[in-house]
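#dry-run=false #mode=assembly
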Amino acid sequence: SAVISQKPSRDICQRGTSLTIQCQVDSQVTMMFWYRQQPGQSLTLIATANQGSEATYESGFVIDKFPISRPNLTFSTLTVSNMSPEDSSIYLCSVEEITEEQYFGPGTRLTVT
Amino acid sequence: SQQGEEDPQALSIQEGENATMNCSYKTSINNLQWYRQNSGRGLVHLILIRSNEREKHSGRLRVTLDTSKKSSSLLITASRAADTASYFCASLNDYKLSFGAGTTVTVRA
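#status=ok
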C-alpha cells in the first residue's frame, strides 16, 4: 500500500491566520482526498483533488476557505484560510489505490486559538 | 458526507473475548471498508469487502456484508489490549467514502 506523509503533524494557530498542510505519497496516484475530523466526530470529506484539474468540493466546503493544490501525482496541499476556533480538527489526506482501497496519512492536528 | 450509522457507540470487553460492531449505510455501494483509529491518530485500513461478497476474513477479523439490509458487521476474535481503538466503517460509492459514526472499543486486561 502507498505510504503517505503529512506536514505538519500538528500546529496551534491564531484565529484569522492561514495554515497550509502538505500531503506526500510515495507513489503516483490519480485521486487524492482531503478529510476533516472534528473533535470526537467521524470523518467528513472536504474535497477530491485530481492532478491537472480543479478540486471538487463537497457540500458545505468552499474553495475560498479550503484552497487545494495538486501540482503532480504524488503531492497535494490543503490550506485552511482565515481560521476560527471551529476549524480546530484533524485534517487527513487519503489516496485510492487500484484495488479501490483508500489509505490515509497520519493526519494534521490543528488547534485554533 | 456521513451516511452511515454504527452500533454500539462504545463497547467494553475483557481480553480474549470477541467484539462485534455493526454498520448501516444508505445508498448503493461499490464496497465497504473498515478502519481502526488509535487515540485520534491516522486511520489504519483493516479490510475491504466488495458489494458482491458476503463474508471476508483477515487474521482475527471477520467482516460480513448484507446489501439487502444495507448493513455490515465487523467481528474481532480473541481480543487483545492492543485492539483498544475506534473502529469506523466507510462505504464507497463512486470513489467517495462515507464514514459511519464509529464504535469505540475498550479491551480490559
